[in-house]
Amino acid sequence: MSEVSDITGSQSVDRALKLLSLVGRSSEEGMSLNEIVSRSGFNKATTRRLLLALMRAKMVDQDEIERRYYLGEEAYVLGSFAAPRFGLLEMSMESLIRISRQTGDASFLSIRRDTHSICLHREEGTYPIRTHALLKGFEHPLGIGAGSLAMLATLDDAEVNEVLARNADELATDFAEVPVTDVRAALNRTRMKGYAVNPGMIFANSWGIGVALSFPDGRLAGAISLAAIDSRVQEPRQSELASILREEAARIECKLARMIDRERADKRPKARNAAPQRLAGRRASL
């Protein structure tokens, strides 16, 4: 590669990162193409080309109606990995540690990534026989695995059908042992019980239990789950494990609610200071 080509490639990367930073700092309102062009100083053709590259990488997303640009799902996933002390992962760590210490089994935090679930963290337990069906960074179609199934169960039927349709080829190819009819049956059981059970969907001796996490407005935030060998996830222990997960899920959701309350308070306009009392008294005497 020539020096000129290398410089040109580096400039493209620098420009793309500048656009990503601009969009990221306007994540709530989003930005129009004209706004990005104006603030970046790039021409419209270059801006559009770089935005399309960022969209292909899922770092940027575009609203289909308003055509405004927002941070994409991959930006969120990478941010979660890069900044483990902040956000949902930070709020969940104490609970994951507590779950694994109390049960002896591995616990997990997962989030939704479009039609899939991705594991952000695995906390090891103390039980000597472990299952390694799920590790940090592993990605599964929604509905495959306990945490993934718990998240799928929170979606309405129309969205569930869309997710399963989009994942149909992958399910048939990579998870042929789990027919869609089994996923739907597990989904119905999850909704009835309030927690998901993975009865060895991927590996026969690896079972799991999962509970979804929600933001205060009901939006899906993620899921916590645990996995163990099949003999450790049978009744009555299954119900006990589900209770532990629910209790920790409630703790995490309380932290999420407090965080959102703080953010809202920070964004409220500050009340103007009241006029000095002596001025108010002076006006009254006029």
UniProtKB/TrEMBL annotation:
Keywords: DNA-binding, Transcription, Transcription regulation
Gene3D superfamilies: 3.30.450.40, Winged helix-like DNA-binding domain superfamily/Winged helix DNA-binding domain
Annotated segments matching region Disordered: 263-286
Annotated HTH iclR-type domain residues: 10-73
A biological-process GO annotation: negative regulation of DNA-templated transcription
Domain IclR-ED: 74-258
Protein name: Transcriptional regulator
Species of the source: Tianweitania populi
